[in-house]
Structures are given as structure tokens and as C-alpha cells.
Amino acid sequence: MSQFKYDLVGIGNALVDVLTKIEDNFLEAQNLPKGSMNLVDMDQSNNLYEQLPPGKEASGGSAGNTMAGFAALGGKGAFIGKVAGDQFGQVFRHDLKAMGVSFDSTDYEGDYSTGKCLVLVSPDAERTMCTYLGAANDLRPEDIDETVITGSQVVYMEGYLYDRETAKQAFIKAAETAHKGDTGTLVSLSLSDPFCVDRFRSEFRDLVKNHVDILFANEDEIMSLYEVDTFGKAMDMVRKDCKLAFLTRGSKGSVVASADDILAVPAVKVDNVIDTTGAGDQYAAGALYGYTQGHSLETCARLGSMMAGEVISHYGARLERDVKEDMTAIVAEAS
């Protein structure tokens, strides 16, 4: 029996996603670069929301999406984040708990509402995000439950949250708590977006080198982190900084890099890409599920690719069908 109560604990922005199909001229009118992630205030978010066509509202947030995918595969998880005691906050809390993810963080009490992310999906399936962090942005060191951290095999933190000073302190507390003593808890981090890397490059470099065991990044993010012009150079550098790096490259698949080895795994072929929202989140869910269950690194990457391929075949950042049979087939093939 595992010494850990949880396989994985996610720390991130607790947001409700509003997913809407738009035309490219809408982005031009709003001066929004296609594919970008934009932080907006409450007034900007409400104004943009009023101009959008009808969409789909669902619990989201990067780490929340990862935890939902992880639970869908059968992993036991917990989540640490902040929501207000409003309707959206209640929906977010209920959704995670209904999936079997423990979420016992106290409600935020203040002037902000529960955060929301407007996900604008272009005809070519590219997504542009406008995020109002709201209550999610108030995560503090005191919100990090040390018993949950040390009771988890792996801690997973999303780079999107790394904005306010209190959130940075919460990251450090979680990482130091995980590595304190001999619990064996590992720390993983998703760089989340080139936008995040550009803003916090030096701090992320320090975080990766001194606190992170397992890193998740896409090709653009890892090259930006190390300010190099080729993927190969970035891969060589990250191998010196952390135990493992899962580096995704879209249709080119992914690479698992460690000090001792480099493993390339192809992407799952998807005939019709509908929406790339959540691809990185679900890749992390699959890879971390495989890792916490003791599977090979190749199997971890294949599970990640399967999850990413599944989520980009429909609108939204969470799964719409049971993928356990697919997971079982991948594991069986590797044995």
C-alpha cells in the first residue's frame, strides 16, 4: 500500500471557463493577438463577456483541468486554490468533488468574485484567452496545507498562478514542504504559457533549478525560458536543471528529457482538431498518472499524448468520454 494519501495534488487558479466560438475579426476588433493569454480586470472581463456570442461555461483553470483528467484515469488527487462563496465558486467546488478530487480550501472573503477565463476559439481551432483571476489570485502561503503536500506523491503547480508575491511565496512553501524530511514527495511545474515565461523568466529559472523535479513545457516555452534559438539547445539546458522534463511539440509529439536519456514519443493522430484548449493540461494529467502508477517514461508520455489527442478533438478543456479503456490498452501494450 502506498505511503501517500494522494497520488497528486494540484495548486493553481480556480477558474470557470467560458468557451465561445468567434471569428478572427472579433479578435482584431478587440486588439487581441490570436493564441495569446491576456490578464484582464473585472470590468474588462465583464465588458468582453457581454459582447460574446453564447458559449459553454464549465469549471476550468489549468491545474484544475489536469486534476480532472488525472481523476478520470483513476488517480487519487487533491486541489489547492481559491474561489469565492458565489455561484461560480460553488459550481467549481462541486465539479471537482464530483470527479473525486478533494478540494477543502476555504472560500475567499473579499471584494473579488470567483475568477473566470474567456476562451475564444477561432475557426482554425486556435484559442485566445482573457483571464480574470478574481479570488483565485488571492492564494497565500497560509492556504498551503502541509499535510496535503506531504501526503501526496507529487505536487503539481501551474505557472499561470505565478503572479502576485503571495502566490510566489505559496509556491516556494509548497516546494520546500514537499522536499522537507524524507517523505519522497516530488515537485512538478507547468510553465503554462510563453507569456508567463516572458514575465518571470529569471524567477522561473531559479524555481526550475532549485525546487522542481518534473517540468512540463511546450517547445516555445522551454526555448523562451533559456533564451535560445533551437529546441535542442533548450533541451540540453533543462536536463541539467531538473530530474525530468516532459516537453511537448504539438503534432511532432513530445520528448522526455533527463540527465541520462532523451526519449521521443510521437503524438496521437487526430483527424479533426477542433480546439487546442487544455492540450497541455491533459498531457500533464496522463503523464503524471503514468508516473505515479510506476509506469515507464515512454508509457507516461504515451498516456499524455493520448489525453492531449482526446481533448483537442472537441470543444473544451476537459474530457467528454471515458478514456480508461484507452489507458488500459497503452499500459497493456507496454507490459
Strand order in the sheet with the most strands: 5-1-8-9-10-11-12-13
What would you report as the Rg, rounded to the nearest angstrom?
18 Å
The helix/strand order is EEHEHEHEHEEHEHEHEHHEEEHHH
- Give the biggest sheet: 8 strands, mixed
The helical percent reads: 40-55%
> Could you give me the name of the CATH homologous superfamily?
Ribokinase
The secondary structure category is alpha/beta
CATH architecture: 3-Layer(aba) Sandwich
Distance between the termini: 21 Å
How many separate domains?
Answer: 1
The low-confidence runs, each spanning 5 or more residues with pLDDT under 50, are none
Please indicate the percent range of residues in DSSP E strands (runs of 2 or more): 15-25%
CATH class: Alpha Beta
The outline comes out as globular
Give the number of DSSP strands.
13
* Count of DSSP-assigned helices: 12
In CATH, the topology is named UDP-N-acetylmuramoyl-L-alanine:D-glutamate ligase
Average pLDDT value? 93
